[in-house]
Amino acid sequence: MIRVENLHRHFGGFRAVDGASLEIATGSITGLVGPNGAGKTTLFNVIAGVLEPTSGRVLMDGEDITGLPPHVLFHKGLLRTFQIAHEFSSMSCRENLMMVPGGQSGETLWNAWMHRARIAQEESALLKKADEVLDFLTISHLKDEKAGNLSGGQKKLLELGRTMMVDAKIVFLDEVGAGVNRTLLNTIGDAIQRLNTERGYTFCMIEHDMDFIGRLCDPVIVMAEGHVLAEGSISEIKANEAVIEAYLGTGLKNKEAVT
Ligand SMILES: Nc1ncnc2c1ncn2[C@@H]1O[C@H](COP(=O)(O)OP(=O)(O)OP(=O)(O)O)[C@@H](O)[C@H]1O
Ligand SMILES: [Mg+2]
Description:
- There is one protein chain.
- The strands form 2 sheets. This protein has a 6-stranded mixed sheet with strand order 6-7-8-3-9-10, with helices on both faces.
- It folds into 2 domains: 2-87 and 168-257, 3-Layer(aba) Sandwich (Rossmann fold); 91-149, no CATH class.
- Helix 7 links the parallel strand 7 and strand 8 (202-206).
- It starts with a strand and ends with a helix.
- The chain has 11 helices and 10 strands.
- By secondary structure, the protein is of the alpha/beta class.
- The chain binds adenosine-5'-triphosphate (ATP) and magnesium ion (MG).
- Magnesium ion is lined by residues 40-41.
């Protein structure tokens, strides 16, 4: 579904992404790992249209999507989760979800005046959809809770929920499991797996927790110093000398992460 060709993103003289090439297969849950500073988030930002590449190409189903802005990619079904912005923290979980789809008729005053009935219909469809999503994520009991009052992990479920309000094809997740307790991590993992099998979502996820990656992802791609170092199953990655070397080079904390 996604093909990244010799991608570069430099900041001044610094090569954060330095000739990265990789593929994300349709229907996969692809893991992206690597030491801190490897360029993973920068790569995601370039793919998702948040950052312009210095050079290189990104293709989606064969179409060149390099440098397209996030809202255009959104309509193509390519989504990246974002933290819930401050402005939305005083809105309920349900309202947060209802904000997601673009192109509603209620957006302009003219439309509001012309098509009251249609708006009401769309709103009730949106409400239904939002409630389905909350149910899917097992957080129905939080529907009227302000997003700002959720725990870190519950917020991450809600962020995942926003990708379900539209027909996403591929979702990029940057450390959804970071700082989340085991129980909630399992809930997030289950939601990702179900979205993959039941709704056909393709995922690419950055994560430092190798157990979490190992449970969900195949293949796993390892990045180091801005490019792809290795790709394979979790056991292949863990046994790969170059990968161990890359993690060792960044200190003991990372070594423990990979072994
Ligand atoms: N806007 C920027 N300006 C300058 N340097 C940047 C910028 N964004 C990222 N970098 C640098 O690029 C490198 C890669 O950063 P990036 O955030 O992509 O790494 P990462 O693999 O996601 O790391 P982590 O696992 O710690 O999240 C880092 O050395 C970082 O300091
Ligand atoms: Mg990062």
